[in-house]
Structures are given as C-alpha cells and as structure tokens.
Specification:
Layout lengths: L1 H17 L4 H10 L5 E11 L4 E11 L3 E8 L7 E5 L2 E6 L4 E4 L16 H5 L4 H4 E7 L8 E8 L9 E7 L5 E7 L5 E13 L2 E11 L6 E11 L10 H4 L2
Antiparallel strand pairs: 1-2, 1-13, 2-3, 3-4, 4-5, 5-6, 7-8, 8-9, 9-10, 10-11, 11-12, 12-13
Length: 246
C-alpha cells in the first residue's frame, strides 16, 4: 500500500515539475544526449525486409558531429566493409574489390548498408534547438500522460528533408522514446522507437532503436548499442580515406 501511495505522489510531483520545463530545454537535451568531443563503440544492426533478414556487428568512431567511421566486423563475408563521413561527404569501402566509392548526391536518399536508414541520415546533423521551430502538443499531467509530445517544423534553409518531426519525450528522464517523421502533407513516413534505457558511457541512453517505414509496417531496422565510450582519444588519422581501408 505504501509503495502505491509513494508512486502516486511521485507521479503527481513529476506532473507539476513538467509545467515548468520549456520546450527549448527539452530540445537541447535531445541534441546533447549523444554528443561528445569523441566516441567509440560497437553495435549490432538487424535488418528485416519482406524478402530477407540479416544481422551485422559494427564498430563506430566519431568526432564532434562532422566525422564518423563505421566498420563491419561480422559476418565474415561483410567484414571490412566501411563507411566514412567527413562533413557532408560519404565514402564506402568495399574490401572484396578493394575499392573506395564516394556516394553521389543523387544517392543520399538510398539505403545505408541495406537498412531502413539512409545515407542522408548519416550525414545530416540537424539540431532541434537550432534548425526547427518546436511547440508542445501535450505535457505530462501526473495522471494519465507521462510524456511531452512536441511538434518540430524545419526552419527555412535548415538541412532537413521532413515536413515535420514529432517527438514523444519521457517525463522521467527527458529522453525521447519515439520520433515520427512526416512529409509536407503531414503523412507519417517512418517511426523511430527507442527502448532499453540504461547507462552507457556514463550517460543514460537508449540501448536499442528501431526504425519502421510507415508503408511497410512488417519491416524494420534495429540497432543495438553493445557498448559505448565518450570523450576518448582517437588517432589523428582515424577519419581519413587511408583509415577507411584498415
């Protein structure tokens, strides 16, 4: 009985505090959740389509928001395949033919590594607090609603391909657990769901994210963050075409 009373009191208190949180504060929290001077980690990506399914184990390195390197570790037939992002440019390395290919602008909307994420997802580093105008749709009330729901509309000339983005942010820790991407007409194109919230690299984060296309609800791409470290020292040549082939 005491536990139930305490839970109700905490929920009501959280609802009261929610009224004091600004939309700007919440969007800065989303921007900063995964950002650091540098990071490295391993992850497992599972892709399911109507025709096939596969899993990849990958290692990633990043520096700020402009540099990223992702290399496939398994399975053996894919091992060594890598993607390098430097600012607005992407290169793929194919070890079977020992060839480095720059991704042209016309292919930025294409699938990355056969997943439901695009090459554009890898390059675009829009910040909610800078590139969108955001407004509350719902707020936690300490009773039936335990999320903020926020609609974000791209500002003019922002590096964003969506007509609108809607986030559901948990009152308990100010972390998003769902993002809906909508087109110019307001139709949902895809949904990104976050789960398995835990501490990674000293920060509370979602260990799992799942992207689902609206027109193919039985398909998805899941990315499970196996481990992650922030603010690590990386070699100076980490984000070079030479390093892409290692």
């Amino acid at each position: 009985m005491r536990t139930g009373v305490v839970a109700v009191l905490l929920l009501c208190t959280a609802g009261a505090r929610a009224q004091d949180v600004t939309v700007e504060e919440l969007m800065r929290a989303q921007d900063d959740a995964l950002r650091g001077a540098s990071s490295t980690g391993t992850m497992t990506m599972r892709v399911k389509t109507a025709r096939w399914e596969r899993s990849l184990t990958m290692q990633s390195w990043s520096e700020g928001t402009e540099k990223t390197l992702v290399r496939i570790l398994a399975p053996a037939k894919e091992k060594g395949t890598a993607t390098l992002k430097v600012e607005g440019n992407i290169w793929n390395y194919l070890p079977k033919v020992d060839r480095t290919i720059k991704v042209p602008g016309s292919m930025m909307g294409g699938s990355w590594m056969g997943s439901h994420f695009t090459n554009d997802d890898l390059v675009r580093e829009a910040r909610y607090s800078e590139d969108f105008t955001c407004a509350f749709v719902e707020k936690p009330d300490g009773k039936t609603r335990d999320h903020w729901v926020i609609d974000c509309t791209p500002r003019p000339n922002a590096p964003v391909v969506w007509g609108r983005v809607r986030l559901a942010i948990r009152a308990v820790d100010k972390l998003a657990d769902r993002i809906d991407y909508l087109d110019e007409k307001g139709a949902r194109v895809r949904t990104l769901v976050f789960s398995e919230f835990t501490t990674l690299g000293g920060r509370k984060l979602a260990r799992m994210m799942r992207m689902v296309p609206a027109d193919k609800p039985d398909e998805f791409t899941e990315v499970h963050q196996d481990d992650l470290a922030f603010d690590v020292k990386l070699p100076a040549d980490t984000f070079t075409l030479q390093a892409l082939k290692k």
